Amino acid sequence: MKFTLVSSSIALLVTALAVEAAPGGKILSVPLQTNGNYKPSIKASLAKVAAKYSKHKINPLLNVPGGLASTEGTGSVPVIDYEIDIEYYGTVSIGTPAQNFKIDFDTGSSDLWVASTLCSTCTTHTRYDSTKSSTYVADGRTWSIAYGDGSTASGILATDTVTLGGLAIKSQTIELAKKESSSFASDPIDGLLGLGFNTITTVSGIKTPVDNLISQGLITSPVFGVYLGKASKNGGGEYLFGGSDSTKYTGTLKTVPVNKSQGYWGVTVSSLKVGTTSVGTSFSGILDTGTTLLIFTETIAKKVAAAYGATDNGDGTFIISCDSSNFKPLVFTMNGSTFNVPADSIIFEQDGSTCFASFAYSSGMSLSILGDVFLKNNYVIFNQQVPSVQIAPSIDQ
Ligand SMILES: *[C@@H]1O[C@H](CO)[C@@H](O)[C@H](O)[C@H]1NC(C)=O
Ligand SMILES: *[C@@H]1O[C@H](CO)[C@@H](O)[C@H](O)[C@H]1NC(C)=O
């Protein structure tokens, strides 16, 4: 569920907060007001190549077509952490010969789409050109997607070879964008690759890239491991398809069951605490790499805010003290194990003397989203087959 900030300089408070509501996939939209307290950060403005998700940092590995293949049966895709942990993207190659794109990997959706030469307005992006690919096959059906943050894209389907971390998926259905909403124009990404379940592809019956990695025998284990870095450390990140990278986490992996009934990586949080103070019990959440912040229900968000002395901006976001030295970690319990978001990640961004919290809410929303704020502190191995996740503290926690 791409639910991301449109560039830390503008989007945090002006974007529309919207999510697909739990049952039936209806879109709830809560327009956020522009907040007068919020001043654009110089750093963000300078680095503003884009709109929705990661951080501006040059990663030489991105020049390797399709990322790097590691050991047999796995494929590693390094990602760039755009701006200050806003979004993460890596290179995906499509076609023969390979055309390379900057793609946002999103566990909260299941479509793979890319800007194409059919889109006359997609000029800020690298566009897929079907006439230059010998493996392109037309499909003719149309597609259209609306994400939780209000962004949209639409176009036509095709199939082509898609190379992910050196693993070449044959006849992958791809969605060629003829149109994309304006927020994408300022976003560095050329498209998205959904890592959710195939029950929520916008055109039904499509196999996701992970489905095909499994069915074409390109990965030996039906998993992918996700490491999202922190800008405050070294940034970057890595998606490892077919395996997990033990150099990216510490401690013991804990298994948490996944409820895929809504097509997302759904988990049950049995308790949420700020230090030892309870702020929530037994609620449903999703693990979503495509969402920047932690999104809670309004009730829970307000309890979390009270525990940190944060003040409600009235638009779903909170202003918080810039001194995190007395902050306690935010502790999630899932299947009897605890997982932390430490004090340094409770502040999402400092802008002059104003700090914005890394948690927010969207009125009327019943599902919580454990976005990048959770995932940059916790390494997660997603297992589509069981389904389940295994989680351990990230090396950046
Ligand atoms: C829950 O945790 C227990 C003990 O840590 C583990 O053995 C079990 O497999 C987990 N349950 C599921 C459904 O993943
Ligand atoms: C999974 O989620 C659905 C919808 O939210 C719910 O109805 C169902 O009871 C859940 N299943 C389990 C095993 O928790």
Automatic annotation (TrEMBL):
<dbReference type="InterPro" id="IPR021109">
    <property type="entry name" value="Peptidase_aspartic_dom_sf"/>
</dbReference>
<feature type="disulfide bond">
    <location>
        <begin position="322"/>
        <end position="355"/>
    </location>
</feature>
<dbReference type="InterPro" id="IPR001461">
    <property type="entry name" value="Aspartic_peptidase_A1"/>
</dbReference>
<keyword id="KW-0378">Hydrolase</keyword>
<keyword id="KW-0865">Zymogen</keyword>
<dbReference type="GO" id="GO:0006508">
    <property type="term" value="P:proteolysis"/>
</dbReference>
<comment type="similarity">
    <text>Belongs to the peptidase A1 family.</text>
</comment>
<protein>
    <recommendedName>
        <fullName>rhizopuspepsin</fullName>
        <ecNumber>3.4.23.21</ecNumber>
    </recommendedName>
</protein>
<keyword id="KW-1015">Disulfide bond</keyword>
<feature type="disulfide bond">
    <location>
        <begin position="119"/>
        <end position="122"/>
    </location>
</feature>
<feature type="active site">
    <location>
        <position position="288"/>
    </location>
</feature>
<dbReference type="Pfam" id="PF00026">
    <property type="entry name" value="Asp"/>
</dbReference>
<keyword id="KW-0645">Protease</keyword>
<dbReference type="InterPro" id="IPR033121">
    <property type="entry name" value="PEPTIDASE_A1"/>
</dbReference>
<keyword id="KW-0732">Signal</keyword>
<feature type="signal peptide">
    <location>
        <begin position="1"/>
        <end position="21"/>
    </location>
</feature>
<feature type="domain" description="Peptidase A1">
    <location>
        <begin position="88"/>
        <end position="392"/>
    </location>
</feature>
<dbReference type="InterPro" id="IPR034163">
    <property type="entry name" value="Aspergillopepsin-like_cat_dom"/>
</dbReference>
<keyword id="KW-0064">Aspartyl protease</keyword>
<dbReference type="InterPro" id="IPR001969">
    <property type="entry name" value="Aspartic_peptidase_AS"/>
</dbReference>
<feature type="active site">
    <location>
        <position position="106"/>
    </location>
</feature>
<dbReference type="GO" id="GO:0004190">
    <property type="term" value="F:aspartic-type endopeptidase activity"/>
</dbReference>
